[in-house]
């Protein structure tokens, strides 16, 4: 079916659908749905928004809006695309608000009673970890912090430090080997 055929069929069915003919309304939805799918798929930029969901919302809104539709000299699809643009924007806002208030971001920490002993042990571990990190050259220390503690990727770390991702990986490997050697020396001293 060509685009001209679809336009002709829309022109014939829109007045009937506006008048309350449910069969014409069903035909109308069937004609605009494929165009809507393409339109929404190209305009949905948020990965959390599914184009098919937006198409469904547009079709529901179209069913509600058809009785109020008035021909003002523009193609009917302009009316449909106007509704679609609003529904795409709504979906994007909803996705953003879900992201902002997502319960997945809330980290549940197990309840632990802080005893003076556990607090002292944590402080001592922190002191030893800091002393161990201080054995590294400043650049290696930054790389370990960025990669291991902060969870940054090698390319991100490289951009931050002006290095290639490969150089970051090599430096991280050397730093971790140095930390292992220092840790084994520390274990021998305390044993």
From TrEMBL:
Belongs to the sigma-70 factor family. ECF subfamily. Keywords: DNA-binding, Sigma factor, Transcription, Transcription regulation. It comes from the Bacteria. InterPro entries: RNA_pol_sigma-70-like, RNA_pol_sigma-70_dom, RNA_pol_sigma70_r2, RNA_pol_sigma70_r4, RNA_pol_sigma_r2, RNA_pol_sigma_r3/r4-like, WH-like_DNA-bd_sf. CDD domains: Sigma70_r4 (cd06171). Residues 31-96, 132-181 form the RNA polymerase sigma-70 region domain. PANTHER family: ECF RNA POLYMERASE SIGMA FACTOR SIGD, RNA POLYMERASE ECF-TYPE SIGMA FACTO. This is RNA polymerase sigma factor ShbA. It comes from Rhodococcus sovatensis.
